[in-house]
Amino acid sequence: MIKGKGISKGIGFGKIFILEKRDRKIQKKNVENTEDELKKFKEALNEEEKEIEEIIQQSSIKEKEIMNAYLMILKDPTLIIETENLIKNFKYNAEYATEEGFNKIVEMFNKINDDYMSERAKDIIDIKNKIIDKIFGEDNFNLKKLPQNTILVAKELTTSETAKLDFENVSGIITEIGGVNSHTAIMARTHSLPFVTEIHNIFEVFNNGQYVGLNGKTGEIYINPSKEEENKLLNIQKLIEEENDELKEYKDKDTKTKDGFKVELVANIGIPSDIEKVIESTAEGIGLFRSEFLYMNSEKMPTEEQQFLAYKEVAEKMQGKPVIIRTLDVGGDKEIKYLNLPKETNPFLGYRAIRLCLDNIEMFKIQIRAILKASAYGNISIMIPMISSIEELRKTKKLVEECKKELEEKNIKFKEDIKLGIMIEIPSTAIMAEKFAKECDFFSIGTNDLIQYTVAVERGNEKIANLYSQYHPAVIKLIKMAIDGAHKEGIFCGMCGEVASDSKMIPLLIGMGLDEFSMNSNKILQTRKLIGNLDKKQCEKLIEKVENLESSSDIIKELKNFFE
Ligand code: PEP
Ligand code: MG
User: Fold this and answer.
1) CA 330 / ligand 1 centre spacing (Å)
2) N or C: which end of the chain has fewer CB within 10 A?
3) Domain topology for 255-562
């Protein structure tokens, strides 16, 4: 048996599929055999061409136009000759020649200082990256089409790779590096996919095609499990299923404490198809639609129409229940290749989410308009991530108003009184909560980020994971400030970070008067059961006790005591 760290519970059986990513660093090399490099370049071009042609076959008219423009770039003799000459005359390796050759043309386009040309320059960069991927051989696997019962093994699985995963056919994930609060882990938990991490020298431990069984809670992995080991795992699986069956009696019930304090119990989703699980869970709405997964699941920027259709689908399926759509929250551990964002030393503190959107207003307005249009078909609200200053909120509100006007001029319907809220996930905003509450309609506390920014511990960094704690007194203080700030101004305060489903924290949050709890849909029923057993007045008393404590460990003890 091999033991790692379980970060998404569940039992999985299947065959290992190794995702071995090569070093993607483009190095300048001088080659002997230029013919080989020319061949690699040509093959990559041909493969890309074939893929684009396939996409064209399945596209709408508008998409066809875009993809045809891509095809023209791909076939452009200037680009091809430039790159081939670098290989022939300078004996450069294919990937370096592609990088240089394409960049030269990009520079030329950018110098022209014309919007159309700079858009084409972006297309060229996009195609360049895809060709380089192909030269590196990174496209030889298709994460969207994996064999049945795959156990995916990788050194590390990025958020965008996970977003593309064929969840139907994956029965488990095993990695060397992975954080319990990373988006990869959050997505695995959403899909009830067992996930074990911290397996050192992973490529030496596993081979392609090996049969394994794993326990995503304990971190146990069995290669070619014996009958006895297999039965042990199957028994645990049976217990999990029984527990889930017992919870079914909480379906379609109100979520309220014994003494009648009612809260909204809603779900987090990443892509529209997650909605099936939400409906099944009888969640009372969507508290967080992480819209960035629409962007991550696509090879290029989703159009206004594509976004509108996705948001509309979710709103309609929720049949009038609240749906909070968070605007693009990219950056940090969420990368989108076609945005070509610069590499940063501190990505979590960098150019991300609302910062990026306010710097790319046209892109942002496409999303806002798509959300507004979809708001005519359900109970949609807009939520802004990573707000750190009041100016960001004001600028966003102005853009929303501009978009409303644009739609009005075209006689396009939308919900005129659509609510606009913000995420409280940066300490500066929690501290200033009262001021923010005067200028927006609701808050949702994003504890995943709030914790990392409060205690200065990167959320996915396992080395310092022991310091990342929702029980830190400062984190608890900030959560309370956010809730109190909202209530002082009469607005509603929810929570959509992972803490919202932490059974130890829930009594404290109920005591603080949190109005809405948003979580993975597979946590909905157990949370409804837990809240139903609480007494609000007793929960209120817990606040006072906790507020007087100085350390996370003392707070954990106190919260555990509450249940004894
Ligand atoms: C959060 O930060 O708590 C949150 C819900 O957003 P995300 O996990 O997507 O950063
Ligand atoms: Mg966040």
Assistant:
1) 11
2) C
3) TIM Barrel (3.20.20)
Distance CA 412, CA 417 (A): 15
pLDDT tens per residue, range 169-222: 999 999 999 888 888 898 899 889 999 999 999 988 998 899 999 999 999 999
- Best residue among 160, 271, 449, 519 to mutate for probing ligand 1's pocket (most ligand atoms within 8 Å of CB) is 449
Tell me, yes or no, if 440 is annotated catalytic.
no
Q: Grade residue 140 by pLDDT with cuts at 50, 70 and 90.
A: very low
Residue ranges lining ligand 1, Cβ < 6 Å:
288, 290, 329, 425, 446-449, 496-497
CA–CA distance from 20 to each of 4, 204, 277 (Å)?
19, 12, 31
CA distance 518 to 384: 16
Is-contact 270 325, C-beta < 8 A? no
Give me the CATH code for the 34-136 domain, please. Answer: 1.10.274.10
The type of residue at 103 is N
Question: How far is Cα 147 from Cα 519, in angstroms, rounded to an integer?
Answer: 30
Of the candidates 183, 191, 472, 487, the residue annotated as catalytic is 183
Counting ligands in written order, the one closest to the CA of 498 is 1
| Secondary structure element (H or E) that encloses residue 15, with its range | strand 11-19
Over residues 264-280, the pLDDT tens digits come to: 999 999 988 899 999 99
Atom 1 (ligand 1) nearest CA:
446
Distance, CA 433 to ligand 2 centroid (Å)? 17
Residue nearest to atom 3 of ligand 1 (CA): 446
pLDDT tens-digit map of 66-101 = 778 778 888 888 889 999 999 999 999 999 999 999
> 2-21+141-228 in CATH: which number?
3.50.30.10
Known active-site residue 493:
no
**pTM reported for the whole predicted model:** 0.80
